Amino acid sequence: MSENQTINIDQMLSVLPGGFLRIALDDELTIIYATDTFYNLIEMDNSKQAKPPKSIFKTVYSADIIYYTQQIAAGKQKKDNQFLLFYRVLQKNGELKWIMINGSKTDEVYQKQNKTYPIYFCIALDVSEHMIDYRKLEQELDYHLTILELSKELFFEYVIATDTLTFSELFREVFGKESVMKDFSKKLEKTKLIHADDLPGVIRIYKSMMSGKKQARIEFRMTTKDGDIAWYVCYASIIFDDNKNPFKVVGKLSIICSKQGDKKASPEVNFDSLTRLYTKDSAEDMIVDSMLNQDSEAISALFLCEVRNYKGLNEVVRIVDGENVLVSIAGVLKRLFRRTDVIGRMGLGDFVVYMKDIRSERNAYEKAEYICREVNNLYSYDYNKNGVIISIGVVLIKGQTDYSLAFSNAKSALVMAKKDSSNSSFEIFYPSLNK
């Protein structure tokens, strides 16, 4: 190829969207060649990166290292000649940009320390907007996965506008009744499914939720299709629409005991009066029970969160916004976690979160990162330089484990996270999950 041809190709590549590069499929994804548009695309911070990075690894945002490593390992196992990578870069303005690198294998190879690696010709594109949409879809998927988890028990959904109560199909098997009940509010007062002595309490809870109560828990007896009396505990929560109006109630019925008149003792669930999260005792009881009954291959995560600098800022927030810092942070935790996760207040500015049955370790990593980002964005006053900071210690758990051990490991991670006294941060205690 002549020099003029090379120049023409470079000129053509420079005007195309995105950046072009040739990379070696080693662990760091060594950059053999990259166009200027690629370096403009990633917008590396020149104050930290004096020279162009020699590998893709050097451009990856630190929180995405595990995700990056997993993708490289998967790419090496693929039998086709295609390569695909998603990761984020930290730009000069402090914002994160999602980059997609997509390419095909060439006939060239790269030699490194007596090893040979294939070279891929790739295009890099900014896919930030698409990834935002993808994250929204992922959140919707989390909701539906939550529904699926609940459906192993007796999940229900009540649409307020149509006065229709719908149970999962398991309801028909247990009680021999149709799982869809129209005109529920009228039928509730006459139902024979609920024990006569317990029905007034159920009606009272229903009316309280229709009057604005956001969450409810009640125990009552029900008659199965075989005539047995079974004790159930009902958990219910209001779901709001985009206009913040209540439009449905979702929840589940969990069996306590099927012997008539003999109810299994269950821990009392109490809520913190300020944040409306579980109290320390209630949260710990629920977490202990969940840890002891976790499947051997299931992975969970325990978060210990400590809010710092909130006492001085709280007075400013109360005056300016009419809010309470701890209530706002409790709201952040409620938004970011699933309804099946346990969220509790452990002390003045201390919170605990337990995520059961996460899909991968990356879920815990991302949640901790999201918490830090959301808390950092809560309040910003030019005349108050001491913003609220949250430090988080996370421990990953596989199979059954002892709560005190998990708590101790999370505490160790929290101590490390608190070493950063100027910003919200997190550390993960990362034991081997390959038991």
What does this structure look like?
Helix 10 (325-336) packs antiparallel against helix 11 (361-376). A hairpin with a 5-residue loop joins strand 10 and strand 11. Residues 1-7, 259-265 and 381-385 have low confidence and may be disordered. It contains 12 helices and 16 strands. By secondary structure, the chain is α+β, with helices and mostly antiparallel strands. Helices cover 34% and strands 30% of the residues. The N and C termini lie far apart (55 Å). The strands form 3 sheets. Strands 8-7-6-11-10-9 form a 6-stranded antiparallel β-sheet. It has 3 domains: 3-126, Beta-Lactamase; 134-257, PAS domain (Beta-Lactamase, 2-Layer Sandwich); 280-429, Alpha-Beta Plaits (2-Layer Sandwich), CATH 3.30.70.270.
Can I get a quick summary?
With 435 residues, this protein is α+β, with helices and mostly antiparallel strands.
Give the SSE map:
Blueprint: H1 3-15, E1 19-24, E2 31-34, H2 36-42, H3 65-77, E3 82-90, E4 96-112, E5 115-126, H4 128-150, E6 154-159, E7 164-167, H5 170-175, E8 180-182, H6 184-188, H7 199-210, E9 215-223, E10 229-240, E11 246-257, H8 280-292, E12 299-308, H9 310-320, H10 325-336, E13 342-345, E14 350-355, H11 361-376, E15 389-398, H12 403-417, E16 425-429
Parallel strand pairs: 15-16
Antiparallel strand pairs: 1-2, 1-5, 3-4, 4-5, 6-7, 6-11, 7-8, 9-10, 10-11, 12-14, 12-15, 13-14
Q: Give the ordered list of helices and strands.
A: HEEHHEEEHEEHEHHEEEHEHHEEHEHE
Classified by CATH, the class of the largest domain is Alpha Beta
Strand order in the sheet with the most strands: 8-7-6-11-10-9
Count of structural domains: 3
Number of helices: 12
CATH architecture of the largest domain: 2-Layer Sandwich
